[in-house]
Design goal:
Length: 497
């Protein structure tokens, strides 16, 4: 008997905010540094110290809330959440309990071109704990992270598969990166997930929730949910009951495991933080934050597809990194000015662009998404950190467009531009890589190749058409890759006819 089980999933996301200093003190927000170097009496939890709210953290938290379409509340307050654990020197964490920064919010995801909106419960601010490092010799503690600013985002339980969960957190991360509140680096733990999973029969009351804690990658989130759904289904099919508990995730064996049972809800003895007054946020402030929110990935995705006629796959790569899509658009804008300035083009700016759009966009994307991504990945940097400007890259594209450069020489020049920031025309001249299209010059090389490769010539003349490509390759080699392959092909065809 197979029952029609439906999984119900909610996710809590902790996001580190990118600020200069910590949430309630002046210590630097830099948990990657030498351990225990960015600390002060406040974040060490010394008695008698007074926390002061970091305005930058508040600004970024409000930006995050707006980017997630959440409603910033006119008043909110901080609370002390008590629990005893070595990573919490004060014995409590400053968080927000019943009056969070923002309520509601939503994220739209697209699952196999089916759109779905997933709503949010709330967005609140809190401080991070210290980091425990479990070494062979014992557990070490790094307090650099203690007191750094976090936001916690809680989704409504509207997610129904592991895949949907992954799409949801991916879109959420991208929105927060676009809003410039975090770098969203998963390896550095800048985004961390907890998830609630239950399984029930459709139309029947919800099942018992199991919480899975500390998931640090999209993959582990997806795998843990998948595993948990199967585990719970199996228990229900055997007619047994699900235990309400908190579970961990073992990435190596791909299973969740019991951490503690939750039959008695943990009592954190929340009470209002007496040292920080409640916040009053005016409508003017909220409106200003809303106005400052830049274009979000969803809108950019749609606009790029419409404006440039780019495929969904290419657009996805472009918007994955905001600076990559910005670099693309700056390059295109340079190329449009260049097209307008040519004597050979006529008509309005729009007419000229429409006539060339397809060819130019294809050329730019071809180089950007293959060669340049290869270079940035190899150098472990973003395109913004390379020495190459969009102006130089646009000029590089014009050289290809005008056939002054062929693609093998192009690769050499692009690598040099990427490394040193050299102007492509200058680089082409210095390296003597300008494409040779001069028929008289090329005929000489063709003639030499025909004399050297008599066997191949015979093969071609007996009908082995692919022999032509071999001969083109020989001429390219002779000219050190500078020949225009099309011109070479034309000359060969004529001579062999
Ligand atoms: Zn401090």
């Amino acid at each position: 008997m197979k029952k029609n089980f439906e999984p119900v999933i909610g996710i809590e996301i902790h996001v580190q905010l990118k600020t200069q200093s910590k949430m309630f003190c002046g210590s630097k927000n830099a948990d990657e540094d030498v351990p225990n170097t960015h600390v002060c009496p406040i974040c060490l939890g010394h008695p008698g110290t007074l926390p002061v709210l970091n305005q930058e953290a508040l600004q970024k938290a409000m930006r995050a809330a707006c980017a997630l379409n959440a409603h910033i509340q006119p008043t909110c307050k901080f609370d002390r959440k008590h629990y005893f654990y070595p990573d919490l020197p004060k014995g409590y964490q400053i968080s927000q309990y019943d009056e969070p920064l923002a309520l509601g919010g939503s994220i739209r995801i697209s699952n196999e071109s089916k759109e779905k909106v997933i709503h949010l419960e709330r967005v609140h601010m809190e401080e991070d704990t210290a980091q425990l490092i479990h070494a062979k010799t014992g557990t070490l503690m790094d307090l650099n992270r203690a007191g750094t600013p976090l936001i916690e985002i809680v989704s409504k339980p509207e997610i129904h598969s592991a895949h949907e969960a992954k799409l949801f957190v991916q879109e959420l991360r991208l929105r927060l990166i676009y809003a410039e509140v975090t770098d969203g680096n998963m390896k550095k733990g800048q985004l961390r997930f907890d998830t609630n999973v239950s399984v029930h029969t459709k139309g029947k009351p919800l099942g018992t929730r199991v919480e899975i804690k500390n998931l640090n990658s999209f993959r582990s989130l997806e795998q843990a949910i998948k595993f948990e759904i199967q585990r719970q289904k199996k228990i229900l099919e055997q007619g047994e009951t699900i235990l309400r508990e908190t579970r961990g995730w073992n990435d190596e064996i791909g299973e969740t495991y019991s951490l503690r049972n939750k039959e008695a809800v943990q009592d954190y003895r929340y009470f209002p933080e007496p040292d920080i007054p409640p916040l009053l946020i005016t409508n003017e402030v909220i409106e200003r934050v809303q106005l400052e929110i830049p274009e979000m990935p969803q809108e950019r995705r749609k606009r790029l597809m419409e404006e440039y006629d780019i495929s969904e796959r290419d657009v996805q790569v472009l918007i994955e990194t905001p600076e990559l899509s910005e670099f693309f658009e700056k390059t295109i804008s340079e190329l449009r000015s260049w097209l307008d300035s040519l004597d050979t083009t006529e008509g309005s700016d729009t007419e000229i662009w429409n006539a060339n759009r397809k060819k130019i966009t294809k050329l730019v994307l071809g180089w950007l998404l293959s060669e340049i991504l290869r270079l940035t990945n190899a150098a472990h940097i973003g395109i913004g950190q390379s020495k190459m400007t969009p102006e130089n890259f646009a000029e590089f594209i014009t050289l290809l467009y005008e056939r002054k450069l062929n693609s093998s020489a192009g690769q050499v020049i692009l690598a040099e531009m990427f490394r040193t920031g050299i102007d492509p025309s200058q680089c082409m001249a210095e390296k003597n890589l300008e494409q040779v299209s001069d028929t008289l010059v090329l005929e000489q090389s063709v003639q030499e190749v025909l004399q050297e490769e008599t066997q191949v010539v015979q093969d071609y003349q007996r009908g082995k058409k692919q022999a032509l490509m071999f001969l083109v390759g020989k001429v390219m080699k002779k000219t050190k890759g500078k020949a225009n392959p099309q011109t070479v092909t034309d000359i060969l065809r004529k001579k062999l006819a």
